[in-house]
Amino acid sequence: MQIILKDPEKLKVIMLKKGFTQRSLAKKSIVSDTTINHLINGKRNVSAPIAQKIISSLECEFDDIFFVELDYKSNQKGGAA
Fold first, then answer.
1. 2-69: which CATH architecture?
2. What is the pTM of this model?
3. Engineering a disulfide at 44: which of 16, 20, 33, 38 sits with its beta carbon 3.0 to 4.6 angstroms away?
């Protein structure tokens, strides 16, 4: 499973409305500036603990900015028969 940002622009709007820059959100969420930057730019997905820190800092719901993608490939058995 992966936690994926729904829409970078929506996250930016929420950040703006709450008065956050990327750096200030990172600081409040106790994550690196790079983590926030990579999340917004689609270079990285986040773990559940980091997602929780971000939504707590933004005072929003998980489903407002993230969704969970199930990775069915990990359930497949490898190897040839």
1. Orthogonal Bundle (1.10)
2. 0.83
3. 38
